[in-house]
Structures are given as structure tokens and as C-alpha cells.
Amino acid sequence: LKQGYSVAFAIAEVYLRLGDKEETFKWLEKSVQDEIEINIYADLNNNPVCDNIRTDQRFITLMKKIGPKK
Prior knowledge:
Blueprint: H1 7-18, H2 21-33, H3 40-46, H4 57-66
């Protein structure tokens, strides 16, 4: 895994704040594919801005896919 900052994750956060779920999930998937070593799981699990997508099946699937970092 690469160390650093995921630009794709930052873009996903912007779309999430704008309420654009389609673009949010597109960029979240890209951030996972980038394989940058950041704890996306914790960021998503603890961020209140994610409250409006927590019940979306895509969110549930993504969280299962990335799992918690140990």
C-alpha cells in the first residue's frame, strides 16, 4: 500500500456534503482502488456527515469490503 493522502476520498467527501450519493459512491470506490493506506473505514464509520448514506446498501457493502484496520 502507498502512504499518503487519497485525493479520491477527499472528492467523495465533497460530494457527500453536497448530497450527491451517486458521485459519492463512485469516488469512495475509487479511493478504495487507490490502495492508499488511510483508515477510510474509521473516517466513514465515525463521520456524522455519513448519516444520510448509512442505510444505503452500497455503503453497507463498502464497509464490509474495507473492514476495520487493526
